[in-house]
Write a structure and sequence with these properties.
By secondary structure, this protein is of the alpha+beta class. It contains ten helices and five strands; from the N terminus they run E-E-E-E-H-H-H-H-H-H-H-H-H-H-E. The protein has one domain (4-296). A five-stranded mixed β-sheet has the order 4-3-2-1-5. A hairpin with a 3-residue loop joins strand 2 and strand 3 (22-28). It starts with a strand and ends with a strand.
């Protein structure tokens, strides 16, 4: 029996869930109605089978997830914003994403690399790499703490928790009702937050192998290595999802679960209801009748 992968993310006033052939966005509108929209997925690996190779598939999955996530947020914005005079064009979204990527690279790649360059003569290569990794993680945590204080972002994190709880409930075969789903944890081992912290940890060892080249070369190597490290992290997350009871896996994934306490918040039953609507629609579109037919991806 071929299994269907299910993953997803929070969006504006709702949840996006994706399967093998479809993805859906469920949004709570101002009139309290839940609107569910569906779209088709066309994976690059269907056209180019070699992209399914180990590690490479993780790199492809990362870029496909980013692309799908952007589309989902745009779709949720269209549904959640009632004012016809307020629209988000594809050009505006593209500019926002480019600016966000530049700022992200500057904050989490360039700044840590520049900050630790002053330790080159006093500390060993692995020591410099560890310090850089700690600087990167602390910057990331500080960023999450800062944005989590914003009302709209907190609501976004509540939908993130609703998405996780719903997937947990489905995995355990529980009833898909708000009361039943609410009992489950908002933390999930395959979360994108866990993926990011795993990338940061692996980067420490990868960067140590590069040594201490000049600053420009050092930054360039870090940017080039990120997709490869992302691919390796994807494989680890995939293994972790299938061996959650393994002690070593629990230890490896623990930092990611700790960090999720910042990126997920306890959702209301209304928010859980939206996540359930998304999951039920997706299962219907994918023709899934049994939980055994589903293999969950990164929520």
């Amino acid at each position: 029996m071929k299994k269907v992968n299910i993953g997803g993310q929070a969006v504006l006033e709702g949840v996006m869930l994706r399967g093998k052939t479809r993805w859906v966005v469920a949004v709570r509108k101002n009139d309290q109605q839940i609107v569910v929209r569906e779209r088709t997925i066309k994976p690059l690996s269907d056209k180019f089978p070699f992209l399914n190779f180990f590690v490479l598939r993780g790199i492809v999955a990362l870029f496909e997830s980013l692309s799908l996530g952007i589309k989902a947020i745009m779709l949720s914005a269209e549904e959640s914003v009632e004012d016809e005079d307020i629209t988000i064009s594809s050009t505006e979204m593209t500019i926002s994403i480019v600016v966000a990527v530049i700022l992200g690279v500057g904050l989490f790649v360039v700044l840590p690399a520049y900050a630790v360059k002053f330790f080159d003569k006093q500390v060993s290569t692995i020591g410099v790499s560890i310090i850089e990794g700690l600087v990167r993680i602390f910057l990331f945590i500080g960023y999450l703490v800062a944005i989590s204080r914003m009302k709209d972002i907190r609501r976004f994190f509540e939908y993130h928790g609703a998405e996780h709880k719903t997937i947990h409930a489905f995995e355990e075969g529980a009833d898909l009702t708000p009361g039943s789903v609410a009992k489950f944890s908002p933390l999930h081992v395959r979360c994108g937050t866990a993926f990011l912290i795993l990338v940061f940890i692996i980067l420490v060892f990868a960067f140590a192998l590069i040594g201490k080249p000049p600053l420009f070369e050092r930054i360039l190597w870090r940017i080039l290595l990120i997709p490869i490290i992302a691919g390796v992290s994807y494989e680890i997350i995939k293994i972790a999802g299938n061996h959650q009871d393994n002690l070593l896996i629990k230890i490896i994934m623990k930092p990611g679960l700790w960090l999720q306490r910042l990126t997920t918040k306890e959702p209301s039953e209304d928010e859980i209801e939206v996540a359930i609507a998304a999951l039920q629609k997706l299962l219907s579109l994918e023709g899934v009748e049994k939980r055994e037919e589903v293999e969950t991806a990164m929520p």
